[in-house]
Amino acid sequence: MAAREEIACSRALGALVGGALGDAMGMPTQLLSPSEIRDRYGFVDRFVDPAPDHPVSRGLKAGAITDDTEQTLLLASVLLTSGGGFDHHAWVDALIRWEEDIKARGGYDLLGPSTKRAIDAINAGTPPEEAGRGGDTNGAAMRIAPVGILVPPSDALIARVAETCRATHNTTIAISAASAVATVVSHGIAGADWRAALGFAVAAARAGEKEGHWVPGGTIAARIAWALELVEGCTVEEGIARVLDSIGTGVASQESVPAAFAVLKLADGDAWRAAVIAANLGGDTDTIGAIAASMAGACAGYDSLPEARVTELVGIDLDET
């Protein structure tokens, strides 16, 4: 294998496993406030079991992945079997089967609001291209890494991002957010470090705004630029406070996606540090961690990830990744 191909493979694996680390770190703290996280776990710098009364994660083991990683790998599988296009019917069928599996495991509430609404609409007979016209939350951005891995930086990348978003997140905001994340991943796979890759995120978000149904809300491009400026020169503690006070950590794309970019910068491009920072933020910690650590892994490669933590992951088969 040529050196360039080896680097690309390492970074692709880094994106996927980095995302899993961020997801698993945020699993026990998701939906909790920063003070609740401190009271239940202290400062989270390792995998921990969720509290017995956790609203969605109770019963999971420390290091367990959630829907963020599962949907990422699901999208990767559909992309690889779709050939040059994107098989919407295969994607929708895969999501529906996945939802049934989630129900069987008692995790129905783990579905994101936009994906759940779209799946319910499709089950009720709505065409896939219409089901996602109200989806503006962060589900598209959380699972978009495989598109960035497979498609080099280009206009075609934004088009492929938009295509994969149609069924569940066919809005300007969601596609813009996913475009920014996929672009950082794509530039990382192509050899850029995290600082260089970040330089393309705002323009990609602007390009993504031209796709999908318009929905009201502040633009992702402006909020990513603002988030990166907001944490410039901050310590991690100062940065966390600014993210909480000014950006927010909810499931809205305008909060969690800019927050993930801020976390990536606060972590200085280190995937594990990004996972730790995100886990202590409060709110949608698993998705913020998954996005930030996936971008970091794409820009630094698999060898940059802590081997001891990777081996502690639960629910992901690295031999099949």
Could you please describe the fold and organization of this structure?
It contains 18 helices and no strands. The chain has 321 residues and is mainly α. α3 runs antiparallel to α4.
Distance between the termini: 19 Å
Number of helices: 18
| Overall helicity | 55-70%
Please tell me how large the radius of gyration is.
Answer: 18 Å
Strand content: under 5%
Q: Spell the H/E element sequence.
A: HHHHHHHHHHHHHHHHHH
Envelope shape: globular
Record field, number of beta strands? 0
> Mean pLDDT, rounded to whole units?
93
Uncertain runs are none
Oligomeric state as shown: single chain
Key structural traits:
18 helices; 321 residues; mainly alpha
Summed up, what is this model?
The protein has 18 helices and no strands. It is 61% helix and 0% strand.
Topology:
Elements: H1 3-26, H2 34-41, H3 67-81, H4 88-104, H5 113-123, H6 128-131, H7 139-142, H8 145-150, H9 155-165, H10 172-189, H11 194-198, H12 201-208, H13 220-230, H14 236-247, H15 253-266, H16 271-279, H17 285-300, H18 307-310
